[in-house]
Amino acid sequence: MKISVVGTGYVGLVSGTCFSQTGIDVVCVDVDERKINMLNNGQIPIYEPGLEDIFKYNVEKGRLSFTTNLKDSLADSEAVFIAVGTPPDEDGSADLKYVLGVAREIGRHMNHYMVIVTKSTVPVGTSMKVKAAILDELAKRGENIPFDVASNPEFLKEGSAVDDFLKPDRIVVGIESPEAEKTMRKLYKAFLLNGHPILFMDISSSEMTKYAANSMLATKISFMNDIANLCELVGADVSQVRKGIGSDARIGNKFIYPGTGYGGSCFPKDVQALVRTADDYGHSLDILKAVEAVNYRQKEVLIKKIKSHFGVNLEGLKFGMWGLAFKPKTDDMREAPSLVIIEKLLQEGASIVAFDPVAQEEAHRILGDSIVYAKDEYDACIDVDALIIVTEWPEFRMPNFRVIEKLLKSKTIFDGRNIYEPEEMQEIKFNYYSIGRKSVVISK
Ligand code: UDX
């Protein structure tokens, strides 16, 4: 079996590589020549645990290849996956120009039956637009080649994308014909050995499923963040509350960790896009509007705590920062809370020395030299007024506090991820501020 995957971003590259791991021939296509050259030279443009090994293995086996030539890639392909970007345009809706551009190109060049699968996260109705674009190009050519469109949203998480793809909780596929179902079932057969289901449904429901899933998860996070804020005011401990509610199977214990707000390439964009779609249909999704507002506020919650400790004037203060990426195990900085915190601190005249195990290069690309980049976590503590923890990398969980206390100017930690216990900080006499739990204030 052979397929083409158009777009070698996160989703396209991971999907293409993982499909090839099952023995399918995969041609990955991208218009970015630099990226294709890199991939052809064995370099992977993203950091994703486990990807490099299977990438190399399948390239060597000759099952995984990269090209800028979409037309050639279509030869003998049974399916083409569209996995190009859908950046938000000015009003928050997903911009479909890349998706529909690819659809048109497929229409210009296809010469046999194929299933054209939309994998990018796209608003309800997009697959029908893909279909219309292909039909339009075929009509221009005077051709009547049969094809099907399908929707197959991707639920992989950055940092565990390969695992998520190889062992999915479920696969959702929107289809219109038994032929398309047959092709998609064949493609995914190897991933379903763990007993998890492939759910076939109509195309609109499939497109909606992706937005509803991400919006529900974002809602859980904003809900917990706001409950955490209230816990502080009433003297409750959100970690206890989290365990208390999470052991109710109807609520579940995942995705209820408070923090500095959700970031990344999906939640902020998808929540915004769904709000926009609903508005277009004259329906106000008030819950999601609140989810967004709470998330926006949450990214500044550490600044409030910093000011409550140091006073409103932060001019001349220097902060160490652990973690820049929007979450651990990725170098992705998109919508990262660290960016908001850094911007605010710099505006207030403070300076920052930051350390992230993998995102420093990416951070430098975005922030330039507006902050200092430390060589390790201890280096980021030297002579700083306080340490701020923004991303919960595992290597930050058990640091040597004896070393840290000698490096810091004042023994003060602002922990945006609740990775330490207030009691242990009390014992070692650190000022310690976290999210939704009581603060430990030894001295100001
Ligand atoms: C998410 C979805 O999980 C995935 O299914 C979808 O395909 C793409 O979007 P991803 O953006 O990689 O994946 O990150 P995820 O691990 O879901 O975390 C998203 C954000 O939520 C992060 O900023 C994370 O720090 C935050 N988060 C997550 C919390 O603040 N608390 C939690 O309990 C869980």
TrEMBL record:
Domain of life where this protein originates: Bacteria
Residue positions of the active site: C266 (nucleophile)
Pfam family for this entry, one: UDPG_MGDP_dh_C
SMART domains, sorted: UDPG_MGDP_dh_C
Domain UDP-glucose/GDP-mannose dehydrogenase C-terminal residues, every copy: 320-422
Keywords, ordered alphabetically: NAD, Oxidoreductase
SUPFAM superfamilies attached to this UniProt entry: 6-phosphogluconate dehydrogenase C-terminal domain-like (SSF48179), NAD(P)-binding Rossmann-fold domains (SSF51735), UDP-glucose/GDP-mannose dehydrogenase C-terminal domain (SSF52413)
Coiled coil regions in record: none
Gene Ontology molecular function, alphabetical: NAD binding; UDP-glucose 6-dehydrogenase activity
Record carries keyword Protein biosynthesis: no
Reactions catalysed, as given in the entry: UDP-alpha-D-glucose + 2 NAD(+) + H2O = UDP-alpha-D-glucuronate + 2 NADH + 3 H(+)
Pathway: Nucleotide-sugar biosynthesis; UDP-alpha-D-glucuronate biosynthesis; UDP-alpha-D-glucuronate from UDP-alpha-D-glucose: step 1/1
GO biological process, one term: UDP-glucuronate biosynthetic process
Protein name per its UniProtKB record: UDP-glucose 6-dehydrogenase
Natural source organism: Aquipluma nitroreducens
